[in-house]
Amino acid sequence: MFEVFSTGYYLGRLYVEPSDDGTAALQRRQHERVNEQVYAGEGLARTDYPLVMKVGSRHYRVEGDADVPADTLVVPRETLDDAGVDNPPALAEVLLARPGHARRLFEVGAV
Question: Per CATH, is 2-107 categorized as 2.40.40.20?
Answer without folding.
Answer: yes
